[in-house]
């Protein structure tokens, strides 16, 4: 039985996720590049669905951090992150994003491969909680699996995704099992729906940061 909402157990997550998501490291590179363009000051940063702490690692290596909060629903993920980041300016929170209690506190909030696990009503609550936790002019950045516009597009991109995973030495059975999670274990929406969704949550600026295969990055300004 898995110990978090992703497809992989915490102790094997970092290895498995790279076998599964094309350009995974670029998600984090794109986040850091955007933040460097948008902000030169020390930041208060919340990372929801932090997993084992990959975003935290990139943040502490590249950005002036006043406070970094690791937040995940999985106690095991947080335990691993605590061991990796014994820093005075690191905090750790086992919490469902829909139950965040922060208000006007963070310059940056990141959500890497998190919100697509939520149904639309849950996603709306989660996004509003993130919006409320940001300071005015705060920056929200997410990466998500997204839904193609057509059934043909869906079949083509899922087949491409399966073939990528097979090239990473995953078995055909394992690859197909992961592809079959679409619409059952995670619930993607289209690029346009993602943008409109963020606008409806109150963000005054919404842009697409990055796009490849069935993953996309988005950012918004409160």
Which helices and strands occur, and which strands form pairs?
Blueprint: H1 13-20, H2 24-38, E1 43-48, H3 54-62, E2 65-72, H4 75-84, E3 90-94, E4 106-112, H5 120-133, E5 134-145, H6 151-167, H7 172-179, H8 191-200, E6 205-212, E7 215-221
Parallel strand pairs: 1-2, 1-4, 2-3, 4-5
Antiparallel strand pairs: 5-7, 6-7
Helix pairs in contact: 6-7
Q: Descriptors for this entry?
A:
Rossmann fold, globular, disordered N terminus, 7 strands
In short:
The chain contains 8 helices and 7 strands, in the order ααβαβαββαβαααββ.
This entry's quaternary arrangement is: single chain
CATH C-level label of the largest domain: Alpha Beta
**Any idea what the CATH architecture of the largest domain is?**
3-Layer(aba) Sandwich
CATH superfamily placement of the largest domain: Vaccinia Virus protein VP39
Helix/strand order, N-terminal first: HHEHEHEEHEHHHEE
- Quickly give the structural class: alpha/beta
Rg calc: 17 Å
